[in-house]
Amino acid sequence: QVQLVESGGGLVQPGGSLRLSCAASGFTFSDYHINWYRETPGKEREFVATISTPTGATHYHDSVKARFTISRDNGRNTAYLQMNSLKTEDSGTYYCNARLYGSSYWGQGTEVTVSS
Q1: Which residues of 43-71 are buried (b: 16+ CB within 10 A; e: fewer)?
Q2: pLDDT tens sequence across 27-47
Q3: 22-27 average pLDDT score
Q4: 52, 71 in Cβ contact below 8 A?
Q5: Average pLDDT over residues 84-107
Q6: Radius of gyration of the chain (CA)
Q7: How many CA atoms, within 13 angstroms, populate the side-chain half-sphere of residue 36?
């Protein structure tokens, strides 16, 4: 059974940090590109960051460059999103996505609220 389970969300003040995790099971994690997306009420789900395999190349949405870092640990079947210098506009539900050609798996999301 394929599963992606996000964790690490929560409430943080502006300027703070959070690290999201995405634990995968049921498929060969190391074969898949990993993406993070986020969704806020009234807006479409938007791309945040990606890390490819096997090169580990990364790419970010312009709004999070230099603040967020995506990484992966293939030995632990886990991906991460380190989020620093958080802004109120970073609030939303963050989703992990694993993609390889026509296969695409999604987690259930983890909520991030940036508020004072």
Answers
A1: eeeeebbbbebeeeeeebeeebeeebbbe
A2: 999 999 999 999 998 889 999
A3: 98
A4: no
A5: 97
A6: 13
A7: 34
Tell me the CA distances in angstroms from 57 to 28, 34, 87, one per residue in order: 19, 11, 25
Count, residues in the chain: 116
Q: What is the residue-wise DSSP string for the chain?
A: --EEEEE--EEE-TT--EEEEEEEESS-GGGSEEEEEEE-TTS--EEEEEE-TTT--EEE-GGGTTTEEEEEETTTTEEEEEE-S--GGG-EEEEEEEEETTEEEE---EEEEE--
Look at the block and give the residue holding tokens 């997306």.
37
Instruction: Give the pair of three-digit tokens for residue 28.
Output: 């060969």
